[in-house]
């Protein structure tokens, strides 16, 4: 794995994290306990910070980045990912805030200033334009994404289960490397 400092700031890893050896984690990036970063993920906390919550997983080929602070946007846009979040393969998350128990479908793009409340499904290939707010308890699909329908009870339960599935998988990978 490649974990690199940027301007004297090092990534911070919680207990029992898994980071694939092909992933690149740079600068001000914090991972919560039991988080997992899979092959070919790039997380670059250089001009702002990235926080990834407990039991969250970032799957293969995803790109995580931030927007710098400026006169017009004094805080810039950090990337904040809550607990029990599943980010599917080849997603792009840029300067957004994801709550807890979210599934971001494969190939989705979530842009600067977006806020995703807890318990949300974002469909594969969805584009969430800048500064949108996705309401808790719904499925969002399309380009640009629209609120499609309320989540079923089974789908809401799956959000937590998906994260737990990846905790189990990363534990298996860690055992193989021990």
Could you explain how this protein is built, in words?
It comes from Alteromonas naphthalenivorans. GO terms for molecular function: transferase activity. Pfam families: Hexapep. This is Carbonic anhydrase/acetyltransferase. InterPro entries: Hexapep, LbH_gamma_CA-like, Transf_Hexapept/Carb_Anhydrase, Trimer_LpxA-like_sf. This protein is mainly β and 178 residues long. The model has no long low-confidence stretch (mean pLDDT 97). It has one domain (2-177): Hexapeptide repeat proteins (UDP N-Acetylglucosamine Acyltransferase, domain 1), CATH 2.160.10. 42% of the residues are buried. A hairpin with a 2-residue loop joins strand 19 (138-142) and strand 20 (145-150). The strands form two sheets. Strands 1, 2, 4, 6, 8, 9, 11, 12, 14, 15, 17 and 18 form a twelve-stranded parallel beta sheet that branches. It has an eight-stranded mixed beta sheet with strand order 3-5-7-10-13-16-19-20. The chain is built from one helix and 20 strands. It has one helix at residues 153-177, and strands at residues 2-4, 12-13, 18-19, 24-31, 36-37, 42-52, 57-58, 63-65, 79-81, 86-87, 92-94, 97-98, 102-104, 109-110, 115-116, 120-122, 127-128, 133-134, 138-142, 145-150. The two termini are 15 Å apart.
């Amino acid at each position: 794995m490649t974990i690199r400092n940027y301007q004297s700031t090092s990534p911070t890893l919680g207990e029992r994290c898994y980071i694939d050896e092909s992933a690149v984690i740079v600068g001000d990036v914090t991972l919560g306990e039991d988080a997992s970063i899979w092959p070919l993920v790039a997380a670059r906390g250089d001009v702002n910070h990235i926080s990834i919550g407990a039991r969250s997983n970032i799957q293969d080929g995803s790109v995580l980045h931030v927007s710098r602070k400026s006169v017009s946007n004094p805080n810039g846009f950090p990337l904040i990912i809550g607990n029990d979040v599943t980010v599917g393969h080849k997603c792009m998350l840029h300067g957004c805030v994801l709550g807890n128990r979210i599934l971001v479908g494969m190939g989705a793009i979530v842009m600067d200033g977006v806020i995703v409340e807890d318990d949300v499904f974002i469909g594969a290939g969805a584009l969430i334009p800048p500064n949108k707010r996705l309401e808790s308890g719904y499925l969002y699909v399309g380009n640009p994404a629209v609120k499609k329908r309320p989540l079923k009870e089974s789908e809401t339960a799956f959000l937590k289960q998906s994260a737990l599935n990846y905790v189990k998988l990363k534990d298996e990978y860690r055992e193989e490397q021990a």
